[in-house]
Structures are given as structure tokens and as C-alpha cells.
Amino acid sequence: MSKQYDADYFQRWYRDPALKDQAIGGAARLARKVALAVTTAEYHLERPLRSVLDIGCGEGPWRAPLLKLRPRAQYLGFDASQYATARFGRSRNLHLASFGDFQYLRPCAPVDLLICSDVMHYLDTRELDRGLPGLAELCGGVAFLETFTREDGIEGDTEGFKRRPARFYRERFAAHGFTALGSHLWLGPALRGGTAALETAD
């Protein structure tokens, strides 16, 4: 039986009271990630954030803290969960699509901030390789590509986790024009070459 991203899944991993702020969706932890991603994008764009694309968005937990910081930003999310997109699609601007669909899917102009958080380490290599070119084309600024590897101490949802080495992702991201900034942040291809030597992690 394939993994189901249904209501029970999100309740367990994002809202279980026993996990408190250590849950995947802990409010304080998420707020720090959002603030980091927003300020990093704005630093490199040298202007306020205008557009955000969240691939593998789940129930869209990034949306509220993003709009709290930047109320005028446009947020668009995609996820393969039929539950999440049916339940929150209209209110949070979420749409149904798998990561691999971004081989062809271009739902918007390149965005200031592209998010793909806690997704890629669950994907088969074939689907990962299909979707990555789309992410590169859709990132007009900075990408937050939160991805974990076999070198990391993984806790929580390990079902379907692909224990790949960090170099697997580094090589693929670089091949599509992403430049490492650190802390899961990557400069998109559109801004490549516009940084000082010590601003990047390469």
C-alpha cells in the first residue's frame, strides 16, 4: 500500500500535541524558517518579496506566516495530496499536482521565493529528475529546498525516506543552475553569478 497523505497523516505529523513545538509544523520553528527564507530572498533581490511558489506544500502551512510578514505577496501552492488540496485549495490557493508534473507544469512566471520543503527525500529518483528542471525555471530569486540525507540524524516520518548522500542533491541542484547559500537556501539560476565569492557556500 502506498503512503497516504490524508487527514490522519497531517494530524499526526503536524498537529500531535505530544510533539508540541518539535512537530514538523511547530509554529515557532516554521516562523523562523519563513523569516530566514523571506529575508534571504529580499537580500539577493534587493527589493520586497512579491511572489511565492510552494511545491509539495501539504496543507499550506507556510502561507500564513509568509503573509504575516509580507501581506502583499502572492502565494501559490501545489501538492499531490488530494485531501490537502480539496480541504484547503480555495482558502489557501492550493492546487493538485505531483512533483514530477513540473516536468511540464509552468503555473506562473518565475517567483521571488520557491519553496520545496521536506519533499525531495521521499521521491523516487525518476520523479525527482523529472521535476527539477521545472523548479529551476520557476525560481526567479531564491529557493528554500529543505532536504535531508543519510548523513543526517533523521527523526519523525521515515516511511519512504530515501537515504541518499548529500552529494546526490548537491550535484543535481548545481546541474540545474542552483547555487548553495547554506541553511537549505539556494540562489536560483536567474541570479547566478551576481554574488560575492563569500556569499555562497560553494
What do these coordinates show?
35% of the residues lie in helices and 16% in strands. It is an alpha/beta fold and 202 residues long. The protein has a seven-stranded mixed β-sheet with strand order 3-2-1-4-5-7-6, with helices on both faces. α3 links the parallel β1 and β2. The longest helix is centred in the first third of the chain and has 19 residues, at 27-45. The N and C termini lie far apart (41 Å). The relative contact order is 0.14. The model has no long low-confidence stretch (mean pLDDT 91). Residues 53-138 form the Methyltransferase type domain. One of its GO terms (molecular function) is methyltransferase activity. This is Class I SAM-dependent methyltransferase. Its EC number is 2.1.-.-.
In short:
It contains six helices and seven strands. With 202 residues, the protein is of the alpha/beta class. The mean pLDDT is 91.
Please describe the topology of this protein:
Elements: H1 7-15, H2 27-45, E1 51-55, H3 63-69, E2 74-79, H4 82-92, E3 94-96, E4 111-115, H5 125-138, E5 139-144, H6 166-175, E6 179-182, E7 185-187
Parallel strand pairs: 1-2, 1-4, 2-3, 4-5
Antiparallel strand pairs: 5-7, 6-7
Report the strand count. Answer: 7
**What is the overall number of helices?**
6
Placed side by side, the strands forming the largest sheet appear as: 3-2-1-4-5-7-6
Radius of gyration: 16 Å
Helical residue percent band: 25-40%
Q: How confident is the prediction overall: mean pLDDT?
A: 91
Structural class: alpha/beta
Order of helices and strands: HHEHEHEEHEHEE
